[in-house]
Design a protein that fits this description.
Blueprint lengths: L17 E5 L5 E4 L10 E3 L7 H13 L8 E3 L4 H6 L24 E3 L10 E3 L9 H13 L4 E5 L4 E3 L5 H10 L3 E2 L10 H7 L4 E5 L5 H10 L1
Parallel strand pairs: 3-4, 3-7, 7-10, 8-9
Antiparallel strand pairs: 1-2, 5-6, 8-10
Helix pairs in contact: 1-6
């Protein structure tokens, strides 16, 4: 269990950030560098701007940690423009999780469900003019090359599962901690996704899919890590 900051002091950040790029609209792309330990991983959220529970949960966990106790690198918002606008895509309408330079990148676009109650995926998004065309995507890849994390965890919602093709000890531990099923895939193709890109780079990637409306349990579980 990490050392925790007293609750009255959790209203603002006490951890330093570093700049790793700039979004389409000029927002700073920030990450929290690991402060202690070795074999650092990278935990990130906010790839899709309409998945705000993951961002808030990770923010609460970071603000609850004591100074100098962060063991892994963290990105709160891969897509700050989308988070501000409340859109799945970035400010150019590109789904960043389909914009990575993978062998199966598909420039024909992508579709998603309007909400969790929708029966089909029919809302159209771009996947970019070319692979890694978006500043948020290219900056993230450059940061990963710089940091060299031993693993990555990308937090999304609301599929309520832990996707880990390698069935790794970390994936099994996350599934146990969050009381979610461990799966090898999410059941559909994801060309140009971050997970596919990581696989091609031989970088272990786990996708943690939060269920809906369980924020405080998620915050407490993140803090355990």
């Amino acid at each position: 269990m990490s050392e925790m900051r007293p609750r009255p002091e959790r209203g603002q950040f006490h951890l330093p950030t570093e700049l790793y790029g700039q979004s389409v609209l000029g927002a700073p792309l920030l990450y929290f560098p690991a402060q202690t330990g070795t074999h650092h991983g990278l935990i990130m959220a906010g790839t899709h701007g309409d998945e705000v529970a993951a961002v808030v949960a990770l923010s609460c966990a970071l603000r609850a940690l004591a100074t100098n106790s962060l063991r892994h690198h963290v990105i709160l918002a891969v897509n700050p423009d989308g988070c501000q606008l409340g859109t799945r895509a970035n400010a150019r309408g590109v789904d960043l999780n389909r914009n990575f330079a993978t062998a199966n990148w598909d420039g024909s676009g992508n579709v998603y469900r309007w909400n969790s109650a929708a029966e089909k995926r029919d809302v159209r998004l771009s996947t970019g003019d070319s692979a890694a065309s978006e500043p948020e995507t290219s900056a993230l890849c450059q940061l990963l090359a710089k940091l060299g994390p031993t693993w990555t965890v990308s937090i999304h919602e609301p599929l309520a599962c832990v996707e880990d093709p390698s069935n790794s000890p970390l994936g099994m531990q996350l599934a146990s901690d969050f009381k979610l099923p461990l799966v090898g895939d999410v059941g559909y193709q994801t060309p140009g996704s971050f997970g596919t890109w990581c696989a091609e780079q031989t970088l272990p990637c786990i996708t943690l899919e939060f269920p809906q409306y369980q924020l405080m349990r998620q915050v407490k579980t993140i803090c355990k890590r």
